[in-house]
Amino acid sequence: MQQLTFSRATKAILAGIAFAVNTPNRIGEYGGRILYLPEGKRIQAVSLTLIGSYSQLLATLLMGSAGLWLFYFGLPGINPDANISSYGIWIRLLCLVISTITVLLLFIYLRISWLVRWVEKIPRIEKWVKALLVIDHLPVRILLRVLGWSLLRYVVFVIQYILLLQIFNVTNDSWTAWWLISILFLALAIIPTIAMAELGIRGKLAIELFGWVSTNQLGIISATLSIWMVNLVIPAILGSLLIFRIKIFSTRLPQEN
Question: Are the beta carbons of 36 and 15 closer than 8 angstroms?
C-alpha cells in the first residue's frame, strides 16, 4: 500500500483532469493520476482508480435512474403545456433498461473479486492479473465506503448546479432541479464525448431538460458554462501547470547529477 499526503493526492487528481480533457469520456484521467506514484505502484494504482471511477458511475446511474422514474411519474414544476405523455412508453422503457443495468453493475461492484478470479483464468494476461490482485482483496465495507464518498461527491456537484440555476433565474424549485440534473448527468455519462467538446452537448441537453421548467435559455447556458468552467476547465489548467512542472524537473534532474 502506498500512503499519499492530501497535497500529493490533490495534485494527482488535478493532473488526471488535465489528461482527461482530450480523451473520450475522460479515460485519460488514469494516466495523469499515476504520475505522482512510484514506478512499481502505478499499474496497481490504475486498478484502484478504476474502482473509484466505477463507483462514481454507479452513483450517477443510481441517482439518474431515480430521476428518470420520478420524471416518468411526474415532477412538480414541469410546464403544464409539455406533452410528456407522448413520450411515456419510451421513458418507461429507458427507465427499465437503466434500472436493470444499474442493479447488475451494483452486484458486480460488490462482488468484484468474482470478476477478478474470472479474469485470472484468461491466458497470457499474467501481468495485468497481478495488478488486479489489489482489487481482489478489497472488502465490501471498503467498496461501500468508496460508493458513499462517490455519492457525496455527486451531491456536491448537484448542489453547485442548483445554486447556479437559482443565481441565473432559471428555477427556484430545488426538488425538480435536483432530479433533472440527475438525468442530465446520466445522459452525459452514457454519451461518448471528449471533455473539451462536451460543452455543446451539455448545453443542448440542459436546454432540452430545463426547458420543461423554464424558458430562460440564457440562464440555462450560463449555469451550464459555469459548472463546466469550475469543475473541468480551471482544474485542467492547474493540472497542466503541474504536469509542465514535472516535465521541467525530469529534464533538469539528469543534468544536475
Answer: yes
Cell numbers at residue 154, please?
A: 455527486
Name residues of the chain where pLDDT drops below 70: 1-4, 22-45, 79-87, 115-117, 119-134, 136, 193-198, 246-257
Pairwise CA distance, residues 15 & 237, whole Å: 9
Per-residue cell: 108: 458486480
Q: Distance (Å, rounded) from C-alpha 246 to C-alpha 14?
A: 13
| Three-state secondary structure call for residue 82 | coil
Report H helices in 74-173: 88-110, 112-120, 126-136, 140-167
Count how many residues are written for the chain: 257
Domain ranges of the chain: 6-256
Kindly report each contact of residues 117-120 with a partner whose C-beta sits within 8 Å and lies 24 or more positions away, as own/partner. none
d(CA 19, CA 15): 6
- CA-CA-CA-CA torsion sign (157, 158, 163, 164): positive
In whole angstroms, what is the distance from residue 98 CA to residue 90 CA? Answer: 12
pTM, 2 dp: 0.81
